[in-house]
Amino acid sequence: EVQLVESGGDLVQPGGSLRLSCAASGFTFGNYDMSWVRQAPGKGPEWVSTINSGGGRTDSAGSVKGRFTISRDNAKNTLYLQMNGLKPEDTAVYYCQRDSTPSEPGWRGQGTQVTVSS
Predict the structure, then answer these.
(1) Closest residue by Cα to residue 31 from 83, 72, 68
(2) Is the four-CA dihedral 10, 12, 14, 19 of positive or negative sign?
(3) CA distance 23 to 48
(4) Under 8 Å CB-to-CB from 66, ≥6 apart: which residues?
(5) Distance between CA atoms of residues 66 and 72, nearest Å
(6) If DSSP codes are grouped into helix, strand and coil, which group holds residue 89?
(7) By CB neighbour count within 10 A (0-12 exposed, 13-18 middle, 19+ buried), where does 65 fall?
(8) pLDDT of residue 92
(9) What backbone torsions phi and psi does residue 90 show, to the nearest 5 degrees?
(10) Section 71-78 average pLDDT
């Protein structure tokens, strides 16, 4: 069974930093592109960042580019999101996502809450 377990969310002041982690199990982690998606209260899901299966290619939304860094450790089956320069508008539940393939649907974890407030 596919499992994605996020951790690292917290309450942080504007300008602060957090590192989110996502522990993956139940599938061959290194075979899949992975993403972070967030959902703020009252809003729809928003794509944040994607990393390819080998970790050599990343892409991020304009709203977080230069502040957030996605990375992965395929030996540890773990996805990360380093978030610096946090802003109140970054407040959301952050979800780890195994991206879909032509033959498989995507899969999302339960999420971790990030709150940016003074």
Answers:
(1) 72
(2) negative
(3) 18
(4) none
(5) 18
(6) helix
(7) exposed
(8) 98
(9) -85, -5
(10) 98
